[in-house]
Amino acid sequence: MRILFALIPALLLSGIALPAAISPAWADDPVAPPVAATKQARLDQLFVDLRRERNEKAAERIAGRIWSEWFQSGSASIDLMMQWSQKAMENQKYDVALDFLDQVVTLQPAYAEGWNRRATVHFMMKNYGKSMSDIDRTLQLEPRHFGALSGLAQIMAETGHKQSALEAWQKVLAIYPMMRSAQDQVGTLSEELAGEGI
Fold first, then answer.
1. What is the CATH number of the domain that holds 137?
2. Which of these, 79, 74, 66, 56, lies nearest to 146 by C-alpha position?
3. Is the pLDDT of residue 157 over 90?
4. CA torsion 86→145→4→132, rounded to 10°?
5. d(CA 165, CA 154)
6. What are the ranges of the TPR repeats (predicted)?
7. For residue 185, is it within any domain?
8. So what's the pLDDT on residue 28?
9. Most CB atoms closer than 10 Å: which of 35, 41, 139, 183?
10. Do the Cβ atoms of 115 and 12 come closer than 8 Å?
């Protein structure tokens, strides 16, 4: 179970070290669609690519681009608070991180990654109920958020709800079929549940 705890923060935050933005070819096009529409179109295409990709490393690169899109809040203030929250998390100052993230979700409630980051901090503090609430909000805003679904699966497994954990990991694989950790968890949980049924 210790491995599971180590996995979730790394998984949910795996995109932190990525560049803050990936400039698409059309970024400088004066007749490009509005930023929000363009971002959504980019995400939609990236998710199509992620579902189709059968090379694990290529899929990881696509997932990294998705994380980059998710991290873009559209607000310099929000981005700064997210950076501060990340620094506080790295220093295990979870209360400080929560202070910043409470402000993020208050100021920009439609920013899914703010909710996901706060869910991660609650998870690291073992506040599973609060983490689940923030995961739920993340998934309302971005149902394809494989990081939030992975967090849900981790909480379900940690609290002894293996069937629910399995179902959450299966949802992850429907979005991101080449995620190795999800594949491993589905295999492990399937075997455990089959053994319990005997």
1. 1.25.40.10
2. 66
3. yes
4. 80
5. 7
6. 112-145
7. yes
8. 43
9. 139
10. no
